[in-house]
Amino acid sequence: MDMSTKPDRFAVVIDDESIILAGMEIMLDTWGYQVLAAEDVETVLAKLPGCPAPDVILSDYRLRDGWSGITAVRAVREACGAAVPAIILTGDTGAELMAAAKADQIRILHKPVQPNDLRRQIDALISTP
Length: 129
Known about the structure:
Layout: E1 9-14, H1 18-30, E2 33-38, H2 41-47, E3 56-60, H3 69-80, E4 86-90, H4 95-103, E5 107-110, H5 115-127
Keywords: Phosphoprotein
Pfam family, one: Response_reg
Domain Response regulatory: 10-126
C-alpha cells in the first residue's frame, strides 16, 4: 500500500468474505479513502506499521481464526496506539455483542447496510471530536 499519495482519509476493513471485502474497498475508495483491506486480522496487523492511524475501522463480527470484530478492533487500536472510531457490520443481535461493543465504544450496524447509511455513520463517527 503506497501511503505517499494517499487521500486525506484512511480506513481499515476486515471481512473474511472476499467479495464483501472487495466491494467495501471499492466503495470506500470512491468516497476518497485510502483503504487497507484484509480477510484476517493478522494481515492487517502486518501491514499497519508505517501507516498513519486509521480514521475508521470497519469489521465484520465473525472473523477467521477465533477473532471477532470486537477483538479485531481492539488489536488494531492497540497497534496504532489510538482510539480509532470503529463500526462492526453484523447480523448478530446478541446482548453479549451489544455489551462488548458499548464497553469498547464500537458502533454496531446490522446487515444489510445501505451504502448511504454506512457513509452517514462513518462521517458522524469521524467528525466527532
